[in-house]
């Protein structure tokens, strides 16, 4: 009854005949998908199927192409690398049970486990499987570098000089120069091990015929409809009691196109987790101060924690517009809106107002004092000074955003107009925004940066002059010789305290020159049901299912 009341409540605003018919048809369709996707051969174990949704199709199950979060979640269930990351962002063993680093920090030697097996496949011969050896990592890394493959993860090995299998159990990597964040890079799914004989056989079709070593094995994929993994009964990891992981029997993924439909399915118990907070349901599930609404507290668990994602507006420093080139205007925008109110009204308190630099809270180098606070009078004074110096009586900037972040841009627009700055907002599809941002076609753009690996260097790379987009992540085309010098010094600095100081100095310099407006540091948030345990949450928002349990 409660679910029907919720369904009725959420459909009610859309009760025009046409939209209501479409809504009912959609709900009927997606219910069929979820039910068909959750079927397991042993009906007594149906409750051990973990179900979640993706809003767009997964592009590839080949880890060499795991660029988007949707792909990463899927390949994380199927593949392992040398190392992985725990929920506290510590690098821990995976297929490598231990490693050593030379005194000059250039040579990494990994000792591999001897009990890691690839998923079963007839191409392995009579036993239909085989052990992972160091040669497999040598092949996998060479594949990342292969220009014919054109992996988007090839950059991960940019600082690697060479690598080799010393023997079956030892894999060695030699760097061109010391790089303290290197182990973090190796946790990325790009660096997963794959079997040469299987990849060679399938070629490009390995994307849909994956064979890995992970806790789950590929079972079935109907693109844009459903994807199913089954338990790997030979998985090498065990829990502290010696029981083999994973606990679940299967994972079922649906592809409902919008977040409201996903939330409806979650409310009805048809999927087990919802990740993120969308405007379509934020007020339904959360109070204004970010707590669970009372009607959900008996059945739903909210998991919440820091997320290595900085949401920002970027200025195109190569623009010929006087307003964009003016430090006065860029600083005025930073002073001109209340970030705390924005988070309360638009995100129900989920997220941290970005009064520090570009480096998010939780990473080495973050400093909460180097950014901007809300000072509307200072914003007005800066804009007045700009008018006096340039003779431009009605300064104007144009912000380009996708529809998902329109409310944030409108909030900033209203606040800045009080200070005397006109703001025009252009709404474009997310794909258009991504393309035009990369190709330097926008004056001001909405963007975010999610950490590829847990080191502040990853964020500061957006301001290194040799990383200009589209060949790198410097979308603002920011260039500063002093910043570049410090950035290059940080590469070779292995002392964490000295590296932290360099990171903070770089971030402070960026804030002073203001090529960006940091809006907020995101928080990862997940809603799951109380019959699910062991899900956890982490600052990279990685979905880790090998220790998840479900009860009826």
Structure write-up:
With 552 residues, the protein is an alpha+beta fold. The chain folds into 3 domains: 157 residues, 3-Layer(aba) Sandwich (D-Maltodextrin-Binding Protein, domain 2); 128 residues, Dipeptide-binding Protein, Domain 1 (Dipeptide-binding Protein, domain 1); 218 residues, Roll (Dipeptide-binding Protein, domain 3), CATH 3.10.105.10. Helices cover 31% and strands 20% of the residues. The chain has 17 helices and 19 strands. The strands form 5 sheets. Strands 11, 12, 13, 14, 15, 16 and 17 form a 7-stranded mixed beta sheet that branches.
Structural class by SSE content:
alpha+beta
Q: Estimate what percentage of residues fall within beta strands.
A: 15-25%
User: CATH homologous superfamily of the largest domain - what is it?
Assistant: Dipeptide-binding Protein, Domain 3
CATH class descriptor name of the largest domain: Alpha Beta
Do you know the CATH architecture of the largest domain?
A: Roll
Number of domains: 3
* N-end to C-end Cα span: 19 Å
**CATH fold name of the largest domain, please?**
Dipeptide-binding Protein, domain 3
Number of helical elements: 17
Share in helix:
25-40%
The low-confidence parts are 1-41
Q: Which shape, going by the Cα principal axes?
A: globular
Q: How many strand elements? A: 19
Average pLDDT number:
90
Q: Main beta sheet, described?
A: 7 strands, mixed
What's the alpha carbon Rg, rounded to whole Å?
25 Å
